[in-house]
Design a protein that fits this description.
This protein has about 120 residues and is mostly beta strands. The protein contains no helices and 11 strands.
Amino acid sequence: QWQVAESGGGLVQPGGSLRLSCVHSGLGVYAIGWFRQAPGKEREGVSCISSSGDSTNYPDSVKGRFTISRDNAKSPVYLQMNKMKPEDTAVYYCAALKRVGCSAWTEADIRAWGQGTQVTVSS
């Protein structure tokens, strides 16, 4: 049985930082991805980390500000978000992928989703 759960969301001022956590369990090893969905917008992937942790992937919108990390294949996955902007406001979801790598990853690669955690960037 696959289980994924996020935590750490909240309210942060522009320019501030927040760290999200994702605990997960499932068969074998797998990559973990973070997505977000703002009101009225499509869900977008914001980071992915391979099962070993040695490969990561970010879109340009968060590159240089967000960092995804994990110690090993079964440890929690963290999303460190720095220099946050109002446009980062969204519900953030953690997801377990069907594979170990993050190359060209999309929602079609997702095996299990977390319930989401709200992140609001506002003064």
